[in-house]
């Protein structure tokens, strides 16, 4: 501590030796009892002896993070820091300045109350103020003031509360994180409850050790002929024939042992309704549950309506084909789709894709599907239509689409075969000799023909090539080509006549497109 502080604290040491001159040690007056400490030294002079200035200064420096000596006007006379961090954070040139000018504006009422209390009592209570630091942040300090004599200087002893403030902020952050997690879990639980109630399939949650029903959705209660509340707590399986109960018990045992097992079939005793029973294991903390799904099966078809085994094998091959297979209605809404399409489209279940427009996942919304549907209505088949397939989570895949139109009475439906071509070694279209010749002619004319004329001719050539590519892509369906190019039909017809593009007569459009052309 500087010499000035030690000189002032020398008075504090002499007063401590004298006894009544200072109220920090020795017998405390009743006016300050309860403000200084819970208990006081019984014999301070015998225990501590006479404290000189050096000892008093060392005592203050050792117990304080910051110590400030003030005159009776509240001006800083001397200052000592107990740590290098505070010395680096604060502007140490406080001497000669009013102490109130070193604190933040919102802390001045607390500081004034501290100084006012120091004029009335020898020892004040703890009060917190904040000092601006050189880093731009406020540092909280808790001060307690000690008046050495009735008309003498005041020593303010401060504790650094940065660690406490950091812990409090961590506590607040932890509480806010807990609240966010709590509300997020509440929302997840609400969605789970809503989905559990709205799903059309019968779902049971079984306690794995006891095989008793813990939860059941309304669909399960309807299938089992009971309300969901009456199903809860009952053993499972119950209400099935002997063979079915043995099969279900074996299924549950396999799930408990291996986490999964093959689906089994079981007949209900009352209605002889046959169910397909599947199960999977759920673990929650230290408890194990089994999720059981009951899917009713249709009655066995008669011999006249039974699906031939060859057709059944054919359908199984389509379902497990490496290419996407999608069946839609005349509006392009999905009726069924195989697992490969669901994987590329990033859709969890077929139920979520059913009823949605195929245009939702194609690369050019509003264009690709319209072109495909127009060609299917006209030619009944489409081959190698190049586009992209967009997944629900943003992935894109280069694909080729072939499609066919099939009539089922008065209501036709369309089948789409979508192949992933993203991993082909050569996906780019080869350059035609005509394109190469045009590029050579263009570069040869540089310097002999003005740039403006070259650009105009190049634009016409590129426009003609794009129209030819669109006509080729749509099978010379001019209405679809106009939509693909973003032109009106009349504008496309004018450009076709302008460039003398001759359509393939074998695939010349008919019907509405031909009428518009005329």
UniProtKB/TrEMBL annotation:
GO terms for molecular function: sequence-specific DNA binding. Coiled coil: none annotated. Gene3D superfamilies: 1.20.5.430, Homeodomain-like, PAS domain. Residues 188-234, 310-351 form the PAS domain. Pfam families: HTH_8, PAS, PAS_4, PAS_8. GO terms for biological process: regulation of DNA-templated transcription. CDD domains: PAS (cd00130). This is Regulator of carotenoid biosynthesis.
């Amino acid at each position: 501590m500087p010499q000035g502080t030690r000189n002032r604290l020398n008075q504090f040491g002499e007063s401590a030796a004298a006894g009544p001159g200072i109220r920090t040690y020795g017998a405390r007056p009743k006016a300050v009892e309860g403000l200084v400490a819970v208990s006081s030294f019984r014999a301070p002079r015998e225990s501590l002896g006479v404290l000189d200035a050096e000892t008093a200064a060392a005592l203050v420096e050792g117990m304080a993070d910051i110590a400030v000596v003030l005159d009776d006007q509240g001006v800083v006379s001397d200052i000592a820091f107990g740590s290098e961090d505070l010395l680096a954070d604060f502007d140490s040139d406080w001497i000669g300045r009013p102490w109130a000018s070193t604190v933040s504006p919102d802390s001045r009422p607390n500081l004034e109350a501290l100084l006012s209390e120091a004029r009335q009592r020898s020892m004040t209570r703890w009060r917190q103020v904040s000092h601006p630091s050189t880093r731009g942040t406020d540092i909280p300090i808790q001060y307690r003031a000690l008046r050495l004599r009735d008309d003498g200087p005041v020593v303010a002893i401060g504790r650094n509360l940065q660690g406490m403030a950091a812990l409090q902020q961590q506590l607040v952050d932890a509480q806010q994180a807990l609240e966010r997690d709590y509300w997020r879990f509440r929302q997840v639980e609400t969605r789970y409850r809503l989905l559990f109630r709205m799903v059309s399939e019968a779902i049971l949650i079984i306690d794995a050790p006891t095989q008793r029903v813990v939860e059941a959705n309304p669909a399960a209660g309807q299938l089992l002929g009971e309300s969901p509340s009456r199903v809860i707590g009952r053993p499972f399986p119950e209400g099935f024939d002997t063979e079915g109960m043995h099969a279900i018990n074996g299924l549950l045992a396999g799930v408990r042992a291996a986490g999964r097992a093959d689906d089994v079939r079981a007949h209900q005793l009352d209605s002889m309704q046959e169910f397909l029973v599947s199960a999977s294991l759920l673990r929650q903390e230290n408890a194990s549950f089994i999720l059981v799904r009951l899917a009713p099966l249709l009655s066995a078809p008669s011999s006249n309506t039974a699906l031939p085994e060859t057709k059944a094998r054919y359908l199984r091959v389509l379902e497990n084909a490496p290419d996407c297979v999608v069946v839609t209605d005349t509006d392009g809404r999905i009726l069924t789709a195989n697992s490969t399409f669901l994987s590329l489209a990033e859709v969890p279940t077929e139920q979520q894709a059913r009823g949605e427009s195929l245009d939702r996942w194609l690369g050019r919304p509003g264009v690709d599907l319209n072109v495909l549907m127009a060609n299917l209505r006209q030619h009944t088949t489409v081959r190698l239509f190049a586009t992209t397939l967009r997944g629900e989570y943003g992935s894109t895949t280069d694909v080729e689409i072939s499609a066919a139109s099939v009539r089922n009475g008065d209501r036709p439906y369309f089948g789409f075969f979508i192949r992933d071509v993203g991993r082909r070694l050569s996906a780019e279209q080869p350059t035609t000799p005509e394109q190469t010749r045009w590029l050579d002619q263009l570069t040869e004319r540089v310097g002999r023909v003005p740039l403006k004329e070259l650009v105009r001719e190049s634009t016409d050539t590129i426009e003609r090539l794009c129209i030819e590519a669109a006509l080729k892509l749509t099978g010379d369906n001019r209405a679809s080509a106009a939509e693909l190019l973003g032109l009106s039909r009349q504008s496309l017809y004018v450009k076709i006549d302008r460039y003398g593009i001759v359509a393939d007569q074998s695939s010349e459009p008919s019907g509405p497109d031909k009428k518009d052309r005329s």
